[in-house]
């Protein structure tokens, strides 16, 4: 029987078997459980968990059901989503990955439900150009959306190919923060407002929290300067301009890298510097530019044309060079650990919602320290 009301589809899979990958997967599962509970409270009729690891969600949260992947069948986002929508007769689906926008609460999800209950054909997303969460009506619009290699493309395909009107959620920390890498775990570990379940899933002893705390102090210091480099978007820039006290030295490059067309060759100003002076001097130069650095390492990797394993990337984010097989990433992580300034390493989520959340946490701690209610 088709679902007439909004239904949340959560995809969880391909998390990997490395220690750092398992650490992130455990947090994503905890975040997904929290989101499922919030979705039901917000008015979603059900939550469907499409996963290659159904046991990870046993027991399934109240109001949810598990839709296991077909054994041996390679995952493809578009066909998998179309299959779920058709199988359950979803007329108002919302789709997200496990761990995506984990700070979305009942109020934000209730706003999505309100939009989906409209009679007009529309979609709701947290980011039009690189979505982590997209809800739409009617569900059959997915059949007109065209090729969907990953969830980031969904809003554009729904507008351009299916003709749906767009509704963009307010650009807040809750709608922009994503749980993509261990760097995001480190930020979350400093947040005292988390649910008990999500807080318990964070391996604080394994996370390099000291440099994050140092960056928090800098964000509240008018005399300090923070260097931010990578795929930094206007939302992050505007948030920090309004909400942080320090000076910001921002280098934004290779925005849209994840959705670049085949054959695209990424080029980075910092990548050229790295090639000229080597890893150690590169890190030293970065430290001359400010009191701390937040670095999206994926841009450097793309510039150099290297593709470290996900486990290597995650170990670098965790500041664990001993377990990294890729030579460049291992040397970069070692140099960062020896650097005279605190440096945070991560991906796009770190220099977007991660930095926004870190700033919010910093001011809460600052106000508490100063005795401000």
Concise overview:
This protein has 373 residues and is α/β, with parallel strands linked by helices.
Protein architecture, described:
By secondary structure, this protein is α/β, with parallel strands linked by helices. The chain folds into two domains: 7-175, Alpha-Beta Complex (Spore Coat Polysaccharide Biosynthesis Protein SpsA, Chain A), CATH 3.90.550.10; 180-369, no CATH class. The chain has 14 helices and eleven strands. Helix 6 (182-189) runs parallel beside helix 14 (350-369). The chain is globular and about 60 Å long. It starts with 6 loop residues before the first strand and ends with a helix. The mean pLDDT is 95.
What is the secondary structure topology, with strand pairs?
Elements: E1 7-12, H1 19-42, E2 46-51, E3 64-68, H2 77-88, E4 93-97, H3 106-116, E5 122-125, E6 133-137, H4 154-160, E7 165-168, H5 173-176, H6 182-189, H7 196-200, H8 209-219, E8 225-230, H9 234-243, E9 247-252, H10 269-288, E10 292-296, H11 297-304, H12 310-317, H13 327-337, E11 343-346, H14 350-369
Total count of helical runs of at least 4 residues: 14
What structural category do the secondary elements indicate?
A: alpha/beta
The gross shape turns out to be: globular
Largest sheet: 7 strands, mixed
Q: Any idea how many domains?
A: 2
Assign a percent range to the helix content: 40-55%
* End-to-end separation: 52 Å
> Average pLDDT, to the nearest integer?
95
Which sequence of SSEs, written as H and E, runs from N to C?
EHEEHEHEEHEHHHHEHEHEHHHEH
Q: In which order are the strands of the major sheet placed?
A: 3-2-1-4-6-5-7
Strand tally, please? 11
Radius of gyration: 21 Å
Strand content: 15-25%
Any low-confidence stretches, pLDDT <50, length ≥5?
none
């Amino acid at each position: 029987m088709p679902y007439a009301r909004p239904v949340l589809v959560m995809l969880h899979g391909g998390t990997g078997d490395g220690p750092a990958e398992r650490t992130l997967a455990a947090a994503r599962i905890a975040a997904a459980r929290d989101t499922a509970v919030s979705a039901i409270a917000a008015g979603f009729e059900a939550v469907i968990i499409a996963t290659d690891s159904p046991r990870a969600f046993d027991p399934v949260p109240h109001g949810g059901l598990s839709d296991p992947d077909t054994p041996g069948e390679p995952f493809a986002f578009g066909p998998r989503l179309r299959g779920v929508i058709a199988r359950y007769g979803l007329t108002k689906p919302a789709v997200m990955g496990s761990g995506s926008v984990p700070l979305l609460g009942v109020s934000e999800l209730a706003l999505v439900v309100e939009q989906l209950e409209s009679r007009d054909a529309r979609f709701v997303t947290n980011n039009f150009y690189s979505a982590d969460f997209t809800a739409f009506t009617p569900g059959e619009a997915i059949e007109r959306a065209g090729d969907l290699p990953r969830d980031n493309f969904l809003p554009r395909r729904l507008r351009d190919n299916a003709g749906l009107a767009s509704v963009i959620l307010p650009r807040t920390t809750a709608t922009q923060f994503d749980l993509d890498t261990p760097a995001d775990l480190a930020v979350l570990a400093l947040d005292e407002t988390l649910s008990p379940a999500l807080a318990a899933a964070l391996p604080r002893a394994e996370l390099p929290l000291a440099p994050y705390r140092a960056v928090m102090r800098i964000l509240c210091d008018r005399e300090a300067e923070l260097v931010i480099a990578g795929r930094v978007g206007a939302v992050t820039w505007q948030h920090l301009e309004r909400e942080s006290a320090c000076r910001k030295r921002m280098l934004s490059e290779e925005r849209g890298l994840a959705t670049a067309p085949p054959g695209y060759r990424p080029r980075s100003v910092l990548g050229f510097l790295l090639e000229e002076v080597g890893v150690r001097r590169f890190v030293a130069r970065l430290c001359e530019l400010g009191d701390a650095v937040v670095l999206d390492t994926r841009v450097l990797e793309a510039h150099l044309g290297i593709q470290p394993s996900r486990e290597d990337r995650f170990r670098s984010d965790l500041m664990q060079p001993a377990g990294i097989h890729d030579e460049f990433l291992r040397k970069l992580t070692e140099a960062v650990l020896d650097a005279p300034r605190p440096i945070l390493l991560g991906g796009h989520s770190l220099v977007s919602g991660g930095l926004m959340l870190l700033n919010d946490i910093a001011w809460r701690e600052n106000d508490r320290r100063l005795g401000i209610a």
